[in-house]
């Protein structure tokens, strides 16, 4: 069966936010002649059964399983399973506004995503590691191949924030992996002098600040400074880890 688009939702142990998102996504799909694909990335919270129940009520919904943890692997698995002309990704902690899919579909004309190998498996969230950079890396590879990146203001979503992500411990962890991912993206796509220049002029001083571990109520200014320190440290260690293999930093399932 042919569809105008496939909405791909990677998920792992977020049944509570997934189910209302699924109902909204099915409404968007029905209005646009699309399908919805849920990619179960090893959930153990009853997600599989909950999705199966919804499938009894909608022929537009499919579920595929990607057992290896990692948001990028799950997204790639959804893209491979997609029957739509366009693949629209949305995370399981977001809620699209009405008209989101129709707005997204307006500028698309090809399947460039799979043509460049999909998301980079070395980047993006993986298990409990909140690393980032997979979308920036994908956009840079698309641009390098002559494709366009467009901003569609009408395709709006509301991001649902897990309360655990408001704790300084998670914020500091995210800051470190942001720096680590920035180093990887820089090494893969930018001249080495620019990568080194960012370390010299932006990160160098921040990396050697004294650490801050909140006791009691966190101080906003010190939390921000500690985030800057952690990001700088992540960038520095990312350069050390990935600099020697900078020519092999893009790992897609197409490339192995």
Which helices and strands appear, and what pairs or packs with what?
Layout: E1 3-11, H1 15-32, E2 34-40, H2 47-55, E3 61-65, H3 71-81, E4 84-89, E5 94-96, H4 100-105, H5 112-115, H6 134-144, E6 157-159, H7 168-189, H8 192-207, H9 220-242
Helix pairs in contact: 6-7, 7-9, 8-9
Protein architecture, described:
There is one protein chain. The strands form 2 sheets. A 4-stranded parallel beta sheet has the order 3-2-1-4. It has 2 domains: 157 residues, Spore Coat Polysaccharide Biosynthesis Protein SpsA, Chain A (Alpha-Beta Complex), CATH 3.90.550; 85 residues, no CATH class. It is 47% helix and 13% strand. Helix 2 links the parallel strand 2 and strand 3. With 256 residues, the protein is of the alpha/beta class. The two termini are 30 Å apart. The protein has 9 helices and 6 strands. The chain is globular. The longest helix is centred in the C-terminal third of the chain and has 23 residues. Helix 6 packs parallel to helix 7 and helix 8 packs across helix 9.
Level-1 CATH class name of the largest domain:
Alpha Beta
> Mean of residue pLDDT?
92
Number of extended strands: 6
**Uncertain ranges:** none
Oligomer: single chain
Question: Could you give a short account of the major beta sheet?
Answer: 4 strands, parallel
Q: How many domains, as an integer?
A: 2
**Binned strand content:** 5-15%
Radius of gyration: 20 Å
CATH homologous superfamily label of the largest domain: Spore Coat Polysaccharide Biosynthesis Protein SpsA, Chain A
- Which structural class best describes the helix and strand composition? alpha/beta
Strand order of the largest sheet: 3-2-1-4
Write down the secondary-structure element order: EHEHEHEEHHHEHHH
Give the CATH topology of the largest domain: Spore Coat Polysaccharide Biosynthesis Protein SpsA, Chain A
Helix content: 40-55%
The 3D shape can be described as globular
For the record, the CATH architecture of the largest domain stands as Alpha-Beta Complex
Question: Helical stretch count?
Answer: 9
Terminal Cα span: 30 Å
